[in-house]
């Protein structure tokens, strides 16, 4: 039997989980860091959703103790029953055709006993990390999203994520940059409908940061 290769990760635009194939590709207009996406087909149309690298979790096997069976991924928090140590554990991938092992007690259970020992999936270690730990400001802050248009707010979130990922932080309320080095990137620039203004600002900041590292 062939093992299913699948992944799940948190979408950047909605901060929701998405499952499917995982793709990394280089967009030279955005630098050498790969764009990480999970594609989905809806009504025969292919969509690609950009995801947080830190939240990508690989499929490890199905939990057969539930109806219907539940797919289990790396980092899922599972409730263990019927073993010497009952409790909550993170799952990790092992080199087996099916199943998974339990991280905390480092016990490599065989496929059948492992799947029977786990009674349910209670969550994932990334559920509380919709904002990656290296971000220096909270991209979910309500005052960043003053427009009632959902698509506009999604664009705002994507731009804030771009800024946070290159290391910008909020120097003063509504102004972003790097303390004692660069500033002048305002929330109004993020809200600006003219994308070229925003892209000029983010490109300028990226170039400054690159020069600083050299």
Q: Layout of SSEs?
A:
Blueprint: E1 7-10, E2 17-20, E3 23-25, E4 35-42, E5 45-50, E6 57-63, E7 70-73, E8 76-80, E9 87-92, E10 101-102, H1 111-117, E11 118-124, H2 150-165, E12 169-172, E13 175-178, E14 182-186, H3 187-191, H4 195-213
Antiparallel strand pairs: 1-2, 1-6, 3-4, 4-5, 6-7, 8-9, 8-11, 9-10, 12-13, 13-14
- Beta-sheet strand percentage? 25-35%
Describe the sheet with the most strands: 4 strands, antiparallel
Q: How far is it from the N-terminal to the C-terminal residue, by CA?
A: 50 Å
> How many helices?
4
Residue share in helices? Answer: 10-25%
Please state the overall shape, judged from the principal axes of the Cα atoms. Answer: elongated
Total domains: 2
Indicate the low-confidence ranges by residue numbers: 104-113
Q: Order of strands across the widest beta sheet? A: 2-1-6-7
- The Rg value, from CA coordinates, equals 21 Å
**How many DSSP E strands?**
14
Order of helices and strands: EEEEEEEEEEHEHEEEHH
Assign the structural class, choosing from mainly alpha, mainly beta, alpha/beta, alpha+beta, or little secondary structure.
alpha+beta
Mean pLDDT: 75
């Amino acid at each position: 039997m062939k093992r299913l290769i699948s992944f799940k990760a948190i979408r950047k635009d909605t901060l929701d989980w998405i499952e499917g194939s995982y793709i990394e590709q280089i967009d030279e207009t955005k630098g050498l860091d790969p764009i990480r996406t999970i594609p989905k087909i809806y009504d025969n149309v292919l969509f690609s959703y950009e995801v947080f690298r830190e939240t990508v979790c690989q499929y490890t096997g199905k939990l057969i103790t539930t109806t219907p069976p539940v797919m289990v991924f790396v980092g899922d928090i599972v409730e263990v029953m019927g073993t010497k140590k009952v409790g909550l554990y993170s799952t990790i991938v092992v080199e087996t055709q099916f199943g998974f092992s339990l991280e905390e007690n480092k016990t490599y259970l065989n496929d059948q006993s492992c799947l029977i020992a786990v009674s349910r999936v209670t969550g994932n270690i990334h559920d509380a990390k919709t904002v990656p730990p290296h971000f220096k400001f909270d991209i979910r802050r309500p005052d960043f999203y003053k427009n009632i248009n959902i698509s506009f707010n999604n664009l705002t979130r994507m731009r804030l994520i771009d800024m946070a990922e290159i290391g910008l932080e909020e120097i003063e309320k509504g102004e972003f940059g790097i303390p004692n080095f660069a500033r002048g990137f305002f929330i109004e620039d993020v809200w600006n409908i003219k994308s070229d203004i925003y892209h000029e600002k983010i490109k300028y900041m990226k170039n400054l940061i690159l020069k600083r590292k050299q």
